[in-house]
From TrEMBL:
Claim: Isomerase is one of the keywords in the record: no
Domain Glycosyltransferase 2-like: 45-179
Phylogenetic placement of the source organism: Bacteria, Pseudomonadati, Bacteroidota, Flavobacteriia, Flavobacteriales
Protein name: Glycosyltransferase
Keywords from the UniProt entry: Glycosyltransferase, Membrane, Transferase, Transmembrane, Transmembrane helix
Matching Gene3D superfamilies: Spore Coat Polysaccharide Biosynthesis Protein SpsA, Chain A
Annotated TM spans: 6-26, 283-303, 309-327, 339-363
Organism whose genome encodes this protein: Postechiella marina
Length: 370
């Protein structure tokens, strides 16, 4: 058997694995519909942890405070900011009686650890139902709290939502950021729907206070400075206690990074956190990523050398058609349909950057909370 024969068989195996993933994993999210839940007026605490976010709070906090929900408070956590974050919070508090401020001072033992600040905010919250977002996030509708919290019931104590990024015209970086966010969401929604919940995003995430303390908060990974969202979900989520919220009105939109350097810095933190996931989750995610890399590398080599090109091209097109279909349906759910036409280009750039970031993380440790 020649090297090219081996590459051809490897490509067939890779496509087989990817087709299985698309048909039996990612389709779980693509083909489900949002469940219409009876509106609930659960008492909710919206928790926002902010470090040097004075400008963003002025811009985005009004969209939280104007939510059409009868019973909620907003817990604003000032995590040792050195700008005017605390003053901005206090100005809002003077105008809104449902704001509670938690001012976290510098603490040598927990300096720079967002999880410590969040823990103080959770303890200070009045209500048992907690809804998390970031200072630079804006709900797309006034029904955000209602949509997210409608998924809670006696069994469902964790709700995973979608936190997208705003669009920037004529920006490849913006498309890349949004595509990576979309792919990540397709993965964690599909895994959760398949009974293997492994992560959520702090831009749009909800769980009960009882669930938080039942899981002993962030104690299992307090020394890991990142992962207040995904590591907590990785530890606490089960097939029985996890619900999904992905209706159009449940989405939040954040401000994307404006430079590749800033985005890579953010992704370095996220990728470094993933190594602390459960073994099953790391194995499955590694298989998905490895087959993505091999698919493109082997396809380019074999097609360039015209080796069994009819078979290779047919398998290549088959995989892309399935991916366009399933990702397209999923993207429509999450209001990201404009990205689908660029899938081949965005995916090649994304897996290349992810590989570079992974190698960089092996050489030096990434920075964490601002």
């Amino acid at each position: 058997m020649t090297l090219l024969d081996f590459a051809c068989y490897a490509f067939i195996a890779v496509v087989f694995i990817q087709v299985i993933c698309l048909l039996f994993l990612f389709s779980k999210f693509a083909f489900i519909k949002p469940k219409k839940q009876v509106a609930k007026a659960l008492p909710v605490s919206v928790i926002i942890c902010a470090k040097n976010e004075a400008k963003n709070l002025k811009t985005f906090l009004p969209s939280i405070l104007s939510q059409a929900y009868p019973n909620f408070e907003v817990v604003l956590i000032n995590d040792s900011s050195y700008d005017d974050t605390l003053e901005v919070m206090e100005d809002f508090q003077k105008k809104h009686t449902n704001i509670k401020i938690v001012d976290v001072k510098s603490n040598e033992a927990f300096w720079g650890n967002k999880k410590y600040a969040l823990t103080l905010g959770i303890k200070a919250s009045t209500n048992d139902y907690l809804l998390f977002t970031d200072a630079d996030c804006k709900p797309v509708s006034r029904s955000w709290i209602s949509e997210m919290c409608s998924q809670f019931n006696a069994d469902k104590t964790i709700v995973l939502g979608y936190g997208g990024y705003s669009r920037v015209k004529n920006s490849f970086l913006n498309k890349l950021i949004r595509y990576e966010t979309l792919v990540t969401a397709i993965q964690y929604f599909s895994f959760a729907k398949s009974g293997i919940p492994y992560m959520g995003v702090g831009r749009n995430l909800a769980y009960t206070k009882e669930q938080f303390f039942k899981a002993k908060g962030f104690m299992g990974h307090m020394k890991i400075k990142s992962g207040d969202d995904d590591l907590f979900i990785n530890e606490a989520a089960t097939p029985k206690n996890t619900a999904l919220s992905f209706s159009k009105n449940s989405i939040t939109i954040s401000t994307p990074k404006k430079t590749f350097r800033a985005w890579v810095k953010q992704k370095r933190r996220h990728i470094s956190t993933a190594k602390h996931y459960k073994k099953l989750h790391k194995f499955l995610l590694s298989i998905i990523y490895a087959t993505n890399v091999l698919f493109w590398v082997l396809a380019i080599i074999l097609l360039t050398l015209n080796f069994n090109w009819q078979i290779i091209l047919a398998l290549f097109i088959l995989k892309l058609i399935l991916q366009y279909t399933i990702y397209g349906i999923s993207a429509k759910k999450l209001n990201e349909s404009d990205l689908i036409i660029f899938i081949p280009f965005l995916e090649i750039f994304l897996i290349t950057f992810q590989l570079a970031i992974f190698i960089n993380n092996l050489i030096s440790k990434p920075n964490h909370w601002k």
